[in-house]
Amino acid sequence: MIRATDEWVTFERHFQQIIQLSAKTVGQNRLVYSPSWVKAQAALIQFGQQAGLTAMVDHYGNVYLDFPGEDDRVIATGSHMDTVRNGGKFDGLYGVLGGLQAITMLKTRFGAPRHTLRLISFSEEEGSRFNTTFSGSKYYALHQSVGSLSDQNGISFEQARSQAVEQLQAINHVMVKRPALPISFTELHIEQGPRLINAHAAIGLVSGIVGQRRWSVTVHGTSNHAGTTPMNDRHDALQAAVTIIYQLNELAHHLSPNLTFTVGQLTVSPNTSNVIPGTVQFTIDARHADDHLLDRFEQLIGETLNRQTDPHIKYALKRYVQDLPATFDANLLARNQQLAQQLSLTSQVMVSGAGHDSYVMNQVTPTTMLFVPSEGGISHAPTELTYPADLKNGIQLLMASLHAQSY
Amino acid sequence: MIRATDEWVTFERHFQQIIQLSAKTVGQNRLVYSPSWVKAQAALIQFGQQAGLTAMVDHYGNVYLDFPGEDDRVIATGSHMDTVRNGGKFDGLYGVLGGLQAITMLKTRFGAPRHTLRLISFSEEEGSRFNTTFSGSKYYALHQSVGSLSDQNGISFEQARSQAVEQLQAINHVMVKRPALPISFTELHIEQGPRLINAHAAIGLVSGIVGQRRWSVTVHGTSNHAGTTPMNDRHDALQAAVTIIYQLNELAHHLSPNLTFTVGQLTVSPNTSNVIPGTVQFTIDARHADDHLLDRFEQLIGETLNRQTDPHIKYALKRYVQDLPATFDANLLARNQQLAQQLSLTSQVMVSGAGHDSYVMNQVTPTTMLFVPSEGGISHAPTELTYPADLKNGIQLLMASLHAQSY
């Protein structure tokens, strides 16, 4: 029997081993199918096999670690192994290693469960290498394939995938398999926002994921000389863009304080200090739990563009992301709330502002998520931080939840 | 005696010969000391020598073509040979070949003048290759040298200069010399703006050049996740920049309709659609004939930055260009006005919104400029256009002005 302290030492060691794979870069870099990603998934298979779990790898490089139960029904947990460029230590990896830790501790304490326990490490969620997101969970849950995409070095998804996955499938005692779907999925994740910290809560019980839309707006004005063109004879694309963004920010605020509105990308052409901008392209990201409110905001964007008065400036609006809001399973949520109380963990129910593999899994099986606090609300950055005590709280609640479902 | 039509055919041929040097690029590309720039200055020397003028080249590659008079006093005209990247056909080159044409026609019609007539083709005015402007006229008029600068390929100014200038100085019968300053300087140039076209005027009589300042503004906010960060917990650098630009545009408009205000360059970091911008850097270009008004606008910029209320967003303001307004010689202007009337050319007095070699020459000698209309007000672009009739009008007025001063 492993002593409790030893178990956490193992968890720490697993974490360090995978984090060290990015030791030579700024932040964590495990872009899907990259050498460090292969090493990380291979290390995870090794951790699972050492703990006595059965390892499977499918054709997309999703890793499954099963602790077989009395029947074939599966209670699954997990998250994704990939990171954004220069990412943090906890996004994705916490749910993978935390899930492994919970299953290992259940195995040690309670032995074989009624239903099979499964840890899933999805290949890719972030969309940082190829212009596609959630390709791992979409392959598993929805049997969706990625089309012909290439990364910024011109390497195709297919080439990268086959080379990387071959290496994982060649590991001793690894089954090549996409196993059947589970009867529930629980994802442990860092919040990536400041709400738990601000509320002094230990656990976020996630009731769903906001709907999300993204648009690109292109403003075509006239590029000209900054000194010789009178102010009343200009068609300045940047001033037009600034006016629109300023107005949309006000409109978003009045529509709902819970509507997030972000202009994250803006490029100016020709982008020279003494030339009036001729073209500006910018993105709008808006999210809310109510899809009708996003409809209304999209309408307001169109009205705002139409309201501009200079006939020499042309606007093009294109929606390129439209993800509907997701509502997670109410029963799992209610049970997690009870279990948190029993463990004396302060919790709050919240809607996730970010997409997760759970968004995809929720389409095929009852799904729930557990959040732990992110210091400073910072994520997708090397300074991403969750303290060990908070990491343990999340794993303990996950363990209780898996126990309640499987034993 | 050359017939009038032959003279204009020669002018057209000169023009075509130099424009053809950029035949394989988009627009005109004669960056200082580049191969096409060397060919252009060499061709100009050949044109001058064929017309019986004395050619000189100084150490910066400024070309001087003299038609010696009875005394050593010099009446000069000219402009610059370099272009911006992908520039137009007329900016700079018109003043060079138009000046040569005017002197050649005076020589043919009237023979040797009282004062020496000089055409100057300045090496560089645009600042497109090295981070310095007016280096040709500053070397000639102010004896100023360029420090250690390199172009974007890492080639130093000194290396580029010495290799290019050697080739010009090796041409037969070329004197290596920086000659004495003239007693007046007249620059013929396209307007690069729409005012003459809008006013249906043939000639712009330039009374001076606006004062010009440029600032860079850096906005430091906090980069964070676009979905998980509540709106009231954001320090969005782009929204802050948008608010400032929006407010400054209003303030500039109220301060004076003649104040030009341009935000030409704006960069967002990290510039990703689903990440709240952490840093935004932008430039402000402001120009006006009254330097006190620019003082006042600079004060308003500072006040606007100080008025912003989020203590987590920091602003840095840095002025990196401050050129005082220039007032050109009143006597030359008045005479040009009379001469335009005598030639039945409609003219209007105007302040130039762009810098010119005349800005530098005006510091050492009585200076004036003549503008001709720019179709559509377009400049620094391949579509830059002035019709032949307007080109001839400018050259004829220049010829009359040089005649009145030299004979």
UniProtKB/TrEMBL annotation, chains A, B:
Cofactor: binding comment: Binds 2 Zn(2+) ions per subunit.
Residues annotated to bind Zn(2+) 2: 91, 126, 380
Residues that, per the record, bind allantoate: 214, 274, 287
InterPro entries: Amidase_Cbmase (IPR010158), Bact_exopeptidase_dim_dom (IPR036264), Peptidase_M20 (IPR002933), Peptidase_M20_dimer (IPR011650)
Key words of the record: Hydrolase, Metal-binding, Zinc
Residues reported in the UniProt entry to bind Zn(2+) 1: 80, 91, 189
Domain Peptidase M20 dimerisation: 211-308
Molecular function in Gene Ontology: hydrolase activity, acting on carbon-nitrogen (but not peptide) bonds, in linear amidines; metal ion binding
Pfam families for the chain: M20_dimer (PF07687), Peptidase_M20 (PF01546)
Cofactor(s) for this UniProt protein: Zn(2+)
Family as reported in the entry's similarity comment: Belongs to the peptidase M20 family.
Listed name of the protein: Allantoate amidohydrolase
Originating organism: Secundilactobacillus silagei JCM 19001
Source lineage: Bacteria, Bacillati, Bacillota, Bacilli, Lactobacillales
Record gene name: allC
